[in-house]
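MODEL INPUT / OUTPUT PAIR
PAIR INDEX: 1
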Amino acid sequence: MAHPESAKIRIMTNSKTEISLTKKVFAKIVSAVSAIALAVSLAGAVSAEEYTESYDAYADNGTAAVQSADDAATAQSADVKVAGAVAEKPKLDQVKLIRETKYSDATHPYNRQTSAITVNWNAIDNAQKYEVYMKTKQKDGTYGTKWKLMGTTAGETSFTVTGLKRNWSYAFKVRAKASGYKTGKCSKVQKINTARIDYDRAGWKAMCRIVYHEVGGINDSMWDAPIVYVSDCVVNQYEAAKYLNDSLWAPYYRRYSSIQDVIYRSGGFMSDAGLAYDGATYGRVTDKVKKAVYGAVYDKVTVSGIDHDDGVYYWCNTSYRPNSYKVAYSYKIPWGYFNIWTEYWG
């Protein structure tokens, strides 16, 4: 006698409760359960083997319309909601990326800023691992549509991607995973730039100190432009020498392996002792100067919406208009006044 999918199958549970299921629903239950690794309780009822045995005995001519217990053991698990038999997996929370931290190694590891980016995020309860995905900025300014899995952490909330392009932008997102849980929703996208130059802690302090010194420690808003452009000058010279093989700067700075050596030892700037003598210690460097230096290093607007200029290599604190095209900016510091005379702003 044939049994259509709407035919009823009656099962007597351990609690002596009779349950009536259609053939179609019964087939879904059997195919979703691993007879080897998992015993599914249906209203406190029976084992997976008993389900399969009952159904096989009920089928025509001994031919079951569902997978056998051996097949079921290899089938993928599924969310089956029948009489509350299989509970729905709980969800993991969405990962939240930590905003890029300026002036430290929290996002860009010292010495590898031009080729590496470290992504950081908050821990998610019950998460066993995190997947980190990345997209690269294209020449047309877009980031494309395909995300690449860069790696998985074993619970750590930080991941460093290496082998990146200098002075370029990358997009990141992260999601949490755990056994027995639904995979968490991906974080919001975070875009981070690699740097124009590499530096260590001493190099960072040297750049900030020389900019602070050259603007006389002034923090007034009318000094925003000089602060930005002096920062540009420092970064541009080192970038031109080390990364661009500029004919003017490469021969001059070739002997120096770090930005602090260029500032302290080349003679083109000032020595560590000279800066200290003039009071240009790192402890006195203003936040505005740090922002300007950070903006110059990572090509980001960080002070008063002023764009950086990657074509300026000199600055001057006299009032004359410079003749060299490379001396793009000059300003005068009048004794007794906090003011700026703009001679030439490019």
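PAIR INDEX: 2
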Amino acid sequence: MPSSRLQRVAVLVLEGAKPLDVGIPAQVFTTRASMPYEVRVCGAAPGLVTGGDGLSYHVAHGPEALEWADVVFIPGYRHPDREDPPQAVVDALLAAHDRGARLAAISTGAFALAATGLLDDRRATTHWHYTRALAAKHPLVRVDENVLFVDEGSVLTSAGAASGIDLCLHILRRDLGVAASNHAARRLVAAPYRSGGQAQYVPRSVPEPLGERFAATREWALHRLGEPFTLDILARQAGVSPRTFSRRFVEETGYTPMQWVMRARIDLARELLERSQRSVEQIAADVGLGTGANLRLHFQQILGTTPSEYRRTFTRGE
């Protein structure tokens, strides 16, 4: 939730760290006027850390940076199934969590997080290539190989590098709201939001023209959320039968077409609540939900709060 002080982000670089996994949170949360975060990169000890893919990192901080952090990112690293991270790192992660910090693993960083025991009896994910290894090494973890990221509150995990962007944007949405997350996505030239429930990869081959057509259909719908939609309308726009459209849409996004439309409408409503003074009734009409009562109903079902409370939360102090 919005805070009056900078949120402190530590990026923990372990031996064999993957360059994209390290760079994503460091870039997303770098301090700027629109981003009230401060980032420190740390390792098991200060100094040179040998990374993966031919790169190394010179980090200024050791595990003590985790004592300072509100959010700790654990990037993926090579050969995570072979050995656990140093005990000092495991202890520092546990201490940070006990102090109230959120721990967020990108890709195979989930193995380091699992080594703390904090993922036991919780859902988690990692890169699809390592899901079975994670389940074998940490059998108490409920590994879900068919999602982009999993949010368990104080511990979060994501799949491969690109889904690390999705996880970072998800955290931004939780902290600062939709407008800030969308602004960061535009700066990164990334998709504004992919749900955590979206599959890591389509389980069987999909012809490329169909995939392109579905992306175009989603983009087409996003620009017309104030208009009425049905499954038939969306399928017609995609140029396939409603049955095919519905089945393939679920495979690609994790939602039915109409669930996706509803969440897109709620997201637009969130941004309007954050950035405009329009009434709830006006916003309901703008996003295609008709009445304020209908907006309140779906807002509560999806977000667990009301539009008015959401607006107070994300405009406080402005």
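PAIR 2 NOTE: Residues 257-275 form the longest helix (19 residues).
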